[in-house]
TrEMBL record:
Name under which the protein is recorded: EEF1A lysine methyltransferase 4
Keyword Oxidoreductase in annotation: no
GO molecular function: S-adenosylmethionine-dependent methyltransferase activity
Gene3D superfamilies registered for this protein in UniProt: Vaccinia Virus protein VP39
Keyword Glycosyltransferase on entry: no
Family membership: Belongs to the methyltransferase superfamily.
Keywords: Methyltransferase, Phosphoprotein, S-adenosyl-L-methionine, Transferase
Natural source organism: Sylvia atricapilla (blackcap)
One of the GO biological process terms: methylation
Residue span(s) of domain Methyltransferase: 51-170
Pro residues bias (residue ranges): 227-239
Alphabetized CDD domains for the sequence: AdoMet_MTases (cd02440)
Length: 253
């Protein structure tokens, strides 16, 4: 019979809680930075923050980001992650910092009241929603819907005038359409970050300010997300019969 083809190895299930729980148990209290430490993007981040801000960190993982902010004088920081093992480890590690709060929560269904934060911050967390997408030009409806749910929740918990800051490897061309939705009621701008070395891999810091209008060009970019995919290209026309006959003659010679 036909030999059964082996399915390709599935990508790691970053969206599955088991994957993360296992990772955090194995690493214990060791911090892990997915996009470099705070110092790398502090110049872009600091102008957006004020000392008294109520800050929410989405998908904190075992990053030192929340504690680094605390050390810099931003002492009202709530950090959430959907891994109980992660949150337990962070609670234990930072028990000595009363202003740091930790909670197990799904970023798609925040349990905070409306307008409860001045700043929502995420570093590489939204990238997890896209990790299984194979074609950045055509995001699956499932990934787009998950992204929309998270962003709607972020917008809801932000106070008017507050800002959402997203730090990611995702290039503006691919990420801005998700953020540039008028429904979220925010403006959008971005800056490239990096170490300044020519060869350094750049990432981007997006700032969305609640209660400010989107630039019309961004609105247009946002509309792209909801356009139906283009119809499949028609098959190429068949060659006229004479050519086929010539071809058949040629291969017989």
């Amino acid at each position: 019979g036909m030999e059964r083809r082996r399915a390709p190895a599935a990508p790691p299930r970053y969206g599955r809680r088991r994957f993360w729980d296992a990772l955090y148990r194995q690493e214990g209290a060791e911090t892990r930075e997915w996009l470099g430490g705070l110092s790398r993007f502090l110049p872009q981040l600091e102008p957006e923050l004020r000392p008294g801000d109520r800050i929410l960190v989405l998908g904190c993982g075992n990053s030192a980001l929340s504690h680094d902010l605390y050390e810099l004088g931003y002492t009202d920081v709530t950090s959430i992650d959907f891994s109980p093992a992660c949150i337990a480890a962070m609670l234990a590690r930072y028990a000595h910092c009363p202003g740091l709060r930790w909670a197990v929560m799904d970023i798609r269904a925040l349990t905070f009241p409306d307008a409860s934060f001045d700043v929502v911050l995420e570093k590489g967390t939204l990238d997890v929603l896209m990790v299984e997408e194979t074609d950045p030009w055509h995001v699956s409806p499932q990934a787009a819907a998950a992204m929309r749910r998270v962003l709607a929740e972020v917008s809801r918990v932000l106070r008017p005038g507050g800002c959402f800051i997203s730090i990611t490897f995702a290039q503006p061309h691919f990420r801005k359409p998700h953020y540039a939705q008028e429904a979220f009621g925010w403006s959008l701008r971005h800056a490239a970050c990096g170490d300044g070395d020519a060869g350094a891999f750049h990432y981007f810091l997006y700032v969305m300010r609640k209660g400010q209008p989107l630039d019309p060009r961004d609105v247009a970019l946002g509309h792209r997300l909801h356009q139906p995919p283009p119809p499949p290209a028609p098959p190429p026309p068949l060659a006229p019969l004479e050519d086929d006959e010539d071809y058949l003659l040629a291969i017989q010679l």
